[in-house]
């Protein structure tokens, strides 16, 4: 490739010689990125040079972005270290949190410090499986039933077709849903340490080819929305998607009073009236206060697909007083889609976020690093729930944000 400058490359676009998305074929990725930034800046007559101050080679983002013009930077903080007793993650860990919401890291940090005072949080992954649900058109409901039976009879053949596309992925099961002459087949895979959406999609594509070859069903769309990816959906809340993960703690009453400035009974009442009854009245899928905050901040810090915060916030928080008058609190995230290989985890700053947790790359055995990341996020969510419920109990929410968030 001959060397060229960003200005010269931009000139060729202005002349109509090159299209904006073709520049990497004619220059190094950083030069192509700078040329596009010049072209975008001149359309608004603004200085956007700050977008060019990024900390990695643009070529490293080749599989993550098209038409790159630079990078936005989100401040990264840490909460903790927090003591975690998980199946896949144990010990004291800092939680990396990327956010622009002042007071959020302070809040999760307070929650972590209270978890430590109570002896740490327990976390467990209870279910795993990334799903893809194609929709097929069939003649009528009789044909729909026949297709469901065919799938049941030929699950080994479907498994072989799907698993031929991947070294790590395993087809766990296929759940059928019939709506008139529409058949949705929800394929669920163990994707090990990958979040698995590309893996599951490619594998399901091969299984669909077999179904079309062997039956009268016609594939309408490889994703029929019963998967359900990047949309609020009850199917994920009930059946799970990615990792289903729970974390909990019992906090002695004195610690709640001293560190959280409220009581176990007040936190339990707020949780019932706000997170359970209030959410039910609102028709919400999120029976929690702000699990999305911990999920989003840790997703950004560790290179997860940020659109999947939608499913990540499918969580229920419980809080109750124990017979001894202490506080039991838990959070259960039904559909946390996380990976420690592939996707955005390859980018250098996101890989560093995974390193802070000690979960970068493939686990031994495969799948344990993604389990560990899920457990860490669940603990961060628990810390955030405790701190916010307490701030509501002590009436500190608005003053906290007036002090730290403005
Ligand atoms: C702000 C606090 C923590 C003060 O809380 P406090 O108890 O007055 O603070 P403190 O000075 O006594 O410190 C207690 C601990 O908080 C942490 N802490 C304290 N300050 C910092 C700081 N600067 N940086 C890092 N950590 C900090 C730290 O762990 C510290 O312990 P230490 O380490 O000193 O032993 C508390 O009032 C709080 O957590 N408020 C709640 C804020 C919150 O949760 N915001 C979340 C976002 S709200 C939202 O987005 C969603 C919402 C609300 O709309 C959802 C809904 O509808 O519910
Ligand atoms: N295609 C789609 O419809 C959608 C795609 N996405 C995007 O998909 C990407 C995530 O897909 P995903 O499949 O996770 O990632 P990648 O497409 O980046 O693939 C990751 C690959 O890593 C390999 N691998 C190496 N070590 C391991 C290990 N220990 N465990 C598991 N896999 C391992 C696997 O190869 P092998 O399979 O050969 O074993 C796996 O397929 C994100 O960029 C996301 O934004 C998001 C939503 C929808």
How would you characterize the overall build of this protein?
By secondary structure, the chain is of the alpha+beta class. The chain folds into three domains: 6-61, no CATH class; 76-128 and 244-404, 3-hydroxy-3-methylglutaryl-coenzyme A Reductase, Chain A, domain 2 (Alpha-Beta Complex); 134-221, Hydroxymethylglutaryl-CoA reductase, class I/II, NAD/NADP-binding domain (Alpha-Beta Plaits, 2-Layer Sandwich). The protein contains 14 helices and ten strands. The chain has helices spanning 6-14, 29-44, 104-117, 141-153, 155-163, 197-214, 234-239, 253-260, 264-282, 291-302, 309-312, 348-357, 368-393, 397-404; strands spanning 76-86, 90-98, 121-132, 135-137, 170-179, 182-190, 218-221, 242-251, 315-321, 327-336. Strands 1, 2, 3, 4, 5, 6, 7, 8, 9 and 10 form a ten-stranded mixed sheet that branches. A hairpin with a 2-residue loop joins strand 5 and strand 6 (182-190). The chain is globular, with a radius of gyration of 24 Å. The model has no long low-confidence stretch (mean pLDDT 97). Residues 166-169, 191-199, 201, 229, 305, 339, 341-343, 362, 366 line the site of NADPH dihydro-nicotinamide-adenine-dinucleotide phosphate. Belongs to the HMG-CoA reductase family. This is 3-hydroxy-3-methylglutaryl coenzyme A reductase. It comes from Halorubrum vacuolatum (Natronobacterium vacuolatum). Its EC number is 1.1.1.34.
């Amino acid at each position: 490739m001959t060397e060229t400058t960003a200005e010269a490359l931009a000139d060729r676009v202005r002349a109509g010689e090159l299209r904006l998305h073709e520049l990497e074929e004619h220059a190094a990725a950083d030069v192509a990125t700078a040329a596009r930034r010049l072209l975008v800046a001149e359309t608004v007559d603004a200085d956007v040079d700050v977008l060019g101050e990024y900390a990695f080679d643009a070529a490293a983002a080749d599989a993550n972005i098209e038409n790159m013009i630079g990078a936005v930077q989100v401040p990264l903080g840490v909460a903790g270290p927090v003591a975690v007793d998980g199946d896949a993650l144990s010990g004291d860990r800092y939680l990396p949190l990327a956010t622009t919401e002042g007071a959020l890291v302070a809040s999760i940090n307070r929650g972590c410090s209270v978890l430590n005072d109570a002896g740490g949080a327990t976390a467990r992954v209870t279910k795993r499986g990334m799903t893809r649900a194609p929709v097929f058109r069939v003649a009528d409901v009789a044909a729909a039933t026949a297709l469901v039976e065919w799938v049941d009879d030929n699950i080994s053949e479907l498994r072989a077709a799907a698993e031929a596309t991947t070294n790590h992925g395993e087809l766990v099961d296929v759940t059928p849903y019939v709506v008139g002459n529409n058949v949705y087949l929800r394929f669920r895979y163990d994707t090990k340490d990958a979040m698995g959406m590309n893996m599951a999609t490619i594998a399901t594509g091969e299984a669909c080819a077999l179904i079309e070859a062997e039956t009268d069903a016609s594939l309408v769309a490889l994703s029929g929305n019963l998967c359900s990816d990047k949309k609020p959906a009850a199917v994920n809340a009930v059946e799970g998607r990615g990792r289903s993960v729970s974390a909990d703690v019992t906090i002695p009453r004195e610690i709640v009073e001293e560190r959280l400035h409220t009581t176990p009974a007040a936190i339990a009442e707020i949780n019932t009236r706000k997170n359970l009854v209030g959410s039910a009245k609102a028709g919400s899928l999120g029976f929690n206060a702000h699990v999305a905050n911990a999920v989003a901040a840790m997703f950004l810090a560790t290179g997860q697909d940020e659109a999947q915060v939608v499913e990540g916030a499918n969580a229920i928080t419980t809080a109750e007083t124990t017979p001894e008058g202490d506080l039991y609190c838990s959070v259960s995230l039904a559909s946390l889609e996380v990976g420690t290989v592939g996707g955005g985890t390859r980018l250098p700053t996101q890989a560093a976020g995974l390193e802070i947790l000690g979960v970068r790359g493939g686990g031994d055995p495969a799948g344990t690093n993604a389990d560990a990341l899920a457990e860490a996020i669940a603990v961060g969510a628990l810390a955030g729930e405790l701190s916010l419920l307490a701030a509501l109990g002590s009436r500190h929410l608005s003053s906290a944000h007036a002090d730290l968030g403005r």
